[in-house]
Amino acid sequence: MQFNRIRRGVCAFAVAALASGGFVSAAMAQSVTVNFLSAQNDDVFQPVIDAFEAANPDIDVVHQTVPFDELNTAIETRVARGDGTIDVYAADTPRIPAFASRGYLLNLDDAKDKITGAVPSAVELELVSHGGSVWAYPMWTSTQLMYFNRDLLKAAKLEMPEGGTSARMTWEQVTANAKAAQDAGAEWGVMFQQVDRYYQLQALFESSGAGNGLTGDDLLEPAMNGDKWVETAQWYADIFENGLAPRGVSPSQTDDLFARGKVAYYIAGPWAIAAFNAAEGLDYGVAPHPYFEGGKQVTPTGAWALGINPHADNLEAARKFAEFVTLTAEGSFLTTKNFPLIPVNAGGFEKYGVAIGEMTPKIGPALDIMAHEGMETAVARPRTVGFVAFETEMNRMFSDVRNGADVKQALDDTQSRLTGLLPRQR
Amino acid sequence: MTRSRKMMILFMFLGPTLAAVILLRLWPASMAVLESLYAPRAQTMSLENYAYIFGDPLFQKSILVTLIYSIIVNPLQIAIALALALLLNVSIPLIGLWRTLILLPVAIPQSVSAVVWGIGLRPDGPVNGLLVALGLGEQRFLTSPDQALGSIILIVSWIGIGYWMTFLLAGLQDIPKSLYEAIRIDGANRWQQFRYITLPQLRRTLTFVLVANTVSNFLVFAPVQILTQGGPQGSTNLIMNDIYTRGFVWGDSSSASAATVVLVSLVLLVVVMQFRLMRAPEDNAA
């Protein structure tokens, strides 16, 4: 009897201990949170976060978003200072060499096989590598399209641009048509989505033969005040000076102007399709990115990858999330649901292709253009540890030029500043 | 009470403050000075960072822009704040409403004010709409190197004037009425009342407002970062924006530290000069 009571007591204790242990471990398991920092709106990542959380009930993902221009500051102030509360962050691929050399990214060499299995393009692997190691999970790539407003072109009796890449318009034609569209009532003739960002404007200088602006073994010497640079920058300055494009509008405000039917020709990434499809009364189409007459056909490329903070509080959960987003077909496709940027994951791209292909009758062969540009005309941004500093100064120069600064002076000033600045980034 | 017990109580009360001063002020300041002496990847101390920033046209211009900005913005804000304080110190109808309206911008975060003004001053924005409606020409405001600094001064003053006015108004209300009665009996006019009673009595408040306003204007950052990032053509690259760009955008923390040391030295120099200028003759005699 006594023995039974003791046995019952021990059993009860064991059950209670197990139960409480289980409860505690369940509570602990539920408390794993992955903090994810990006420059995209919440709705971009919400579908993939929902799917990941459904598959991993023990991990919560908290998305923190900052404006594009603030992302670098957030990484410098948080990741660089050893803050472990950022686990995963979105890194623009040309910034990876700088981040890797400063110790802001976890080495991912152990995931190399997994990455090459899911992302077969060697170029994409190269974009997330530095010094022979892999530092981030490739997520998206990009290109730029020329959007046009059918109503505004119709009003100006202009021909609709053809969707085929063999009928690519020249900048000379686009600016002449833009003027005609404006004379017929369009508020603005031609606009760039990212008015003062190197990512979108590099293609102009590559097309005219000016080059990417950097030279030397480590691409740490500026070369951006030659005649071709001045000539091309002057062309860019003139579209603002002549009133074809508006001054004082920031990149976050440009999509809205096209969506509201105020712009005849508009250069933007494929992700803008989501916003334009949602814009009521906007009848638009897509055509290939223009080039300068007699120059090269060049388009921007490169996009975001996911990096892991080496000081992350939850390294394992962070990697699990990053791998779901980039290395699974489902996760990869879901990142494009509200933000149709091109996924580099093979399975994700297939699903993306179907979704974009369905829009062809309405907007034109966007998918064919993207596939062609990715293979034939894409030129990546220079990969150097000095890229962040270079990009910032170039953006500042573009901003000055579009706001009316003397072009030669602005280029000379930037050249001289970068000459002092870039060697310090080594 | 023994001496050691007294010291213990003293430390109990002062300890947290001392710890905060050391941890939050002296330690980071020392680290900044130390970091400013190491060039990127250097193992030994040198003045290379200082040589680099003083040879950098961007930094030279940022010092110049900061000085021009300070020379304009401080007297402007204090003069308008003082004028408003004098106006609101007399009994005019609806005095509470006017005071609230003038103080209202202070309650709005500086970043929000900057965003609102940014939209207002856009080339196709409402301010230009108003100017055109009044038959005046459109202005470029933040996109023009000639007008951007003026636009920043306008925005910063819109926020600052009400704040500084509050201190001056409190100072005015502390002046004994009997002094005004006495000077009026002696036949003084309004200007003489202002010159011989108001200004000398307001000296301490004015000194505080001048020094605090100067320091806060040296450290202005949010409107510049949000609206111009130092442009166009460096015309609004105030020194705080320059330090931020070096440290947090280029990732060059050593030149940012050197620029910070220069900024602190500059602020100290100006504040010491202001204290000397505002000292009353009787203080000098003492």
TrEMBL record, chain A:
Residues annotated as signal peptide: 1-29
CDD domains: PBP2_TMBP_like
Record's keyword terms, sorted: Periplasm, Signal, Transport
Domain of life, source organism: Bacteria
InterPro entries in UniProt: SBP
The keyword Transport is annotated on this UniProt entry: yes
Ubl conjugation is among the record's keywords: no
A Pfam family recorded for this sequence: SBP_bac_1
SUPFAM superfamilies: Periplasmic binding protein-like II
Family in the record: Belongs to the bacterial solute-binding protein 1 family.
Protein name (database record): Sugar ABC transporter substrate-binding protein
UniProtKB/TrEMBL annotation, chain B:
Protein keywords: Cell membrane, Membrane, Transmembrane, Transmembrane helix, Transport
InterPro entries: ABC_transporter_permease, MetI-like, MetI-like_sf
Transmembrane segments: 67-88, 100-120, 148-170, 205-228, 248-272
A Pfam match: BPD_transp_1
Gene3D superfamilies: MetI-like (1.10.3720.10)
Highest taxon in the source lineage: Bacteria
Sequence ranges assigned to domain ABC transmembrane type-1 in this UniProt record: 63-274
Claim: DNA damage is one of the keywords in the record: no
UniProt keyword Coiled coil present: no
Localization, UniProt: Cell membrane
Membrane topology: Multi-pass membrane protein
PANTHER family (alphabetical): ABC TRANSPORTER PERMEASE PROTEIN, INNER MEMBRANE ABC TRANSPORTER PERMEASE PROTEIN YCJO
Family: Belongs to the binding-protein-dependent transport system permease family.
Descriptive protein name: Sugar ABC transporter permease
Native source species: Hoeflea algicola
